Description:
This protein has two domains: 94 residues, Oxidoreductase, molybdopterin-binding domain (Sulfite Oxidase, Chain A, domain 2, Alpha-Beta Complex); 114 residues, Immunoglobulin-like (Sandwich). A five-stranded mixed beta sheet has the order 11-18-17-13-14, with no helix packed on it. Strands 1, 4, 5 and 6 form a four-stranded antiparallel beta sheet that branches. It has a four-stranded antiparallel beta sheet with strand order 10-12-16-15, with no helix packed on it. The chain is mostly beta strands. Helix content is 5%, strand content 43%. The chain is built from two helices and 18 strands.
Amino acid sequence: MGHAEWGGIEVAGLLAKAQPQPEAGYVRLRGADGYSRTIPMTKAMRPDTLLALTMNGERLPAAHGFPIRAVVPGWYGMDSVKWLETIEVIREEDAGGKEYRRGRSMVGGVQDAGPVSAMEVKSVFSRPADEAILMGRRFTVRGAAWAGERPVKAVEVSTDGGYSWQAARFSPGQPPPQPCAWVHWEYDWKIPVPGAYELVCRATDESGRVQPAKRPADRVDDYEQNTWQRVRVTAV
């Protein structure tokens, strides 16, 4: 994963010139490859929803959507349509596409639970790796966390499989947590004795959403996977 600085035109400004009717509730973005996504008008009118022309101060690369792409901050990447060709204002959600939609099991089949949209709160380890062998009695655990449209408020680390938790700190030298951005975190672990350990991390955002231990049992799709990450290590 990574960060980029996008430059371009606010979608809201373009829509204001088009003067959509009050009943227009959605905007459909379609790329030159035929792929399309529909986002609510309220999200399209956010000042940070862009038609991006540059990436990190340079012309948008072909692999990232040249000559123009949508950037929908805080939502999963499938809504930031590349190689953007058309923007349509429509009254209702375009439910024709079956890609990137939540599915819930129910009696008689699977229920469509709506499109995947805003990112869930999540944290991951960058070190140690799973099955790592750790030498000595001190180790700095590191990772990253994000929460979509909300800033990350806190990250916690467990060294006993999730039975007890300790607060991690945001890594020094970086900006404070911001919406639509991930942050680095770290935890200084004093390893009490040699042996096998299971490390777990979880994040909380400013609205109080906590990264869950388990995925809802009725989810049958593969999206929004944000449960605790577990890393097993051996200290020698």
